[in-house]
């Protein structure tokens, strides 16, 4: 490659995240996909209020750059943590976790992930509504 590649925003198609791995409305904009020697994936993920991922793991480190709204991340067996625009979350390989929006708020992050084959993510059960409601605080203004 001798030059930069520019992909205009208008050429990107927003997709709805697959219902089998997410609860609620979650939108995904693929910014970068693995090509040739690069294994890097970058996706803007926008969660409607109350939307979230299922419990899951990754074979590689995941980096979440929080861009807007208020969200949360929870590691299985630990207390959830509130996320705000500008926060950066590093999830080590193999760690069971979920992330998404808090009650009443939109939340967006860019997910950076190095992809190691088609089974890079291991999706598990949904975060049950009773559990989500017990940990999902409504942030104070």
UniProtKB/TrEMBL annotation:
SUPFAM superfamilies: RmlC-like cupins (SSF51182). Coiled coil: none annotated. This is Cupin domain-containing protein. InterPro entries: Cupin_2 (IPR013096), HNL-like_cupin (IPR047263), RmlC-like_jellyroll (IPR014710), RmlC_Cupin_sf (IPR011051). Pfam families: Cupin_2. It comes from Paracraurococcus lichenis. Residues 44-100 form the Cupin type-2 domain.
């Amino acid at each position: 490659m001798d030059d930069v590649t520019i992909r205009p925003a208008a050429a990107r198609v927003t997709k709805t995240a697959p219902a089998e791995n997410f609860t609620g409305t979650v939108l995904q904009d693929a910014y970068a996909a693995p090509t040739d020697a690069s294994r890097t994936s970058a996706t803007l993920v926008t969660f409607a209020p109350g939307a979230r991922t299922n419990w899951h793991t990754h074979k590689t480190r995941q980096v979440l750059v929080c861009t807007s709204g208020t969200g949360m991340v929870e590691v299985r067996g630990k207390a959830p943590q509130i996320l705000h625009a500008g926060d950066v979350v590093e999830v080590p390989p193999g760690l069971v976790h979920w992330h998404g929006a808090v009650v009443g708020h939109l939340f967006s992050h860019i997910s950076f992930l190095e992809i190691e084959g088609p089974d890079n993510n291991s999706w598990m059960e949904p975060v049950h509504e009773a559990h989500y409601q017990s940990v999902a605080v409504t942030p104070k203004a």
